[in-house]
């Protein structure tokens, strides 16, 4: 795959001190961001956090109020959209209905008088594995295939940077999962820099090598998906990426990299990196899959922290796993995910249980 002619054409994207004010509203408070060439970068955040505005700034459809945008080291802040080495794939991909698939892909090349439009369009269609339908019209393809054509059209002129704005949003769940995988493979094959915007945490985590979580016009945390999931720096990030039980506990001491807490009578220590500090108390986030249910108080063992007793108030089975809600006197409702392959009798609604945390 490394030998195809798309390879190694990506470029760095740098956003330096970007701010974007609209009349009466600041959509981007402050953004400093470097996306290395050839990486798959996801901007993840809730509706209204400023993701689309960021993409529009990079594409040149909006002008920043402050700051500079550089692509491949060149300042593009003042360049018109068509002068930037950037293409965008939107959720609504709008292929020309009367043109063949091949002509849809070749169209932009013809307009810009770029040589060999047909050969290049075929190459791009081979990349998305649709060259065999080159002569069909868009209406004769499925939604997923049409989205792949839109992708072929976006990479055919080899932009240094591809912007993806919720490109899979219109597809059903199963097709979406499949396209996530394909998109990732295509990105690796073409070596372009991808900047993908989504509010779907699973999509961001499965596809991107780096994820930036955005909230209210700022990046809260940025890193590899595993790091964001395992070591969220803020409560917002912990809650946005999957579920988390948040225990607010008193700090009773500190040693090295660990904090001692009032959880289960001072006996539980928490790695410093996992906490968000407030004076005297800390919020400890524990993922539901890190909590185990026991029929009685568990023995002390390395890596097992007893949290306390509780009663099961809800059980919901979902195939591979079961989700329990446990009412614990000290902490309120605690969510627990258990994989159904685990041995032992299943806990039932109303059971008195003990909770432990696998640190
Ligand atoms: P979504 O996922 O819903 O598209 P988003 O994270 O992409 O959300 P943006 O579209 O970037 O959010 O918008 C960020 C904020 O800026 C929103 O509160 C929006 O109302 C505001 N905004 C966007 N464009 C304008 C504009 N032209 N004038 C005023 N406010 C705007």
Tell me what the structure shows.
Part of the ABC transporter complex PotABCD involved in spermidine/putrescine import. Responsible for energy coupling to the transport system. GO terms for molecular function: ABC-type polyamine transporter activity; ATP binding; ATP hydrolysis activity. This protein is α+β, with helices and mostly antiparallel strands. Among the domains are: 86-158, no CATH class; 243-358, OB fold (Dihydrolipoamide Acetyltransferase, E2P) (Beta Barrel), CATH 2.40.50.140. It is 23% helix and 37% strand. α3 packs across α4. It starts with 12 loop residues before the first strand and ends with a strand. It binds adenosine-5'-triphosphate.
Q: Name the CATH superfamily classification of the domain at 243-358.
A: Nucleic acid-binding proteins
Helix content: 10-25%
Alpha plus pi helix count: 8
Widest beta sheet: strand line-up = 6-7-8-3-9-10
* Average residue pLDDT: 87
Write the H/E string, N to C. EEEHEEEHHHEHEHEEHHEEEEEEEEEE
Q: Any low-confidence stretches, pLDDT <50, length ≥5? A: 1-8
Say how many strands there are: 20
Strand content: 35-45%
CATH hierarchy: architecture of the domain at 243-358:
Beta Barrel
CATH topology of the domain at 243-358: OB fold (Dihydrolipoamide Acetyltransferase, E2P)
Ligands: adenosine-5'-triphosphate
Rg, rounded, reads: 25 Å
């Amino acid at each position: 795959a490394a030998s195809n002619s798309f390879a190694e054409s990506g470029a760095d994207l740098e956003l330096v001190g970007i701010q974007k004010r609209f009349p009466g509203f600041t959509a981007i408070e402050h953004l400093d961001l470097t996306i290395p060439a050839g990486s798959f970068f996801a901007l993840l955040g809730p509706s209204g956090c400023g993701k689309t505005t960021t993409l529009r700034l990079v594409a040149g459809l909006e002008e920043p109020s402050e700051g500079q945008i550089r692509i491949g080291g060149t300042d593009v802040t003042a360049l018109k959209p068509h002068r930037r080495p950037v293409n965008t794939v939107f959720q609504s991909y709008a292929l020309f209905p009367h043109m063949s698939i091949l002509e849809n892909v070749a169209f932009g090349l013809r307009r810009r008088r770029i040589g060999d439009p047909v050969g290049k369009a075929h190459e791009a269609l081979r990349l998305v594995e649709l060259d065999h339908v080159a002569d069909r019209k868009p209406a004769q393809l499925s939604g997923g295939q049409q989205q792949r054509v839109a992708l072929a059209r976006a990479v055919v002129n080899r932009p240094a940077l591809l912007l993806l704005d919720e490109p899979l949003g219109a597809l059903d769940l199963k097709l979406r999962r499949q396209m996530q995988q394909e998109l990732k493979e295509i990105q690796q094959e073409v070596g372009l820099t991808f900047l993908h915007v989504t509010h779907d945490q699973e999509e961001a985590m499965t596809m991107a090598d780096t994820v930036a979580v955005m909230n209210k016009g700022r990046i809260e945390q940025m890193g590899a998906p595993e790091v964001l999931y395992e070591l969220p720096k803020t409560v917002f990030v912990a809650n946005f990426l999957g579920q988390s039980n948040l225990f607010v506990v008193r700090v009773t001491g500190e040693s090295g990299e660990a904090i001692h807490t009032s959880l289960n009578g001072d006996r539980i220590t928490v790695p410093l990196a996992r906490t968000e500090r407030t004076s005297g108390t800390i919020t400890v986030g524990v993922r539901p899959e890190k909590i185990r249910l026991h029929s009685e108080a568990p023995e002390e063992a390395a890596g097992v922290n007893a949290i306390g007793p509780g009663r099961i108030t809800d059980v919901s089975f979902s195939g591979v796993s079961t989700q329990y809600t446990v009412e614990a006197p000290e902490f309120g409702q605690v969510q627990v995910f258990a994989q159904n392959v685990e041995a032992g009798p299943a806990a039932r609604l109303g059971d008195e249980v003990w909770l432990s945390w696998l640190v």
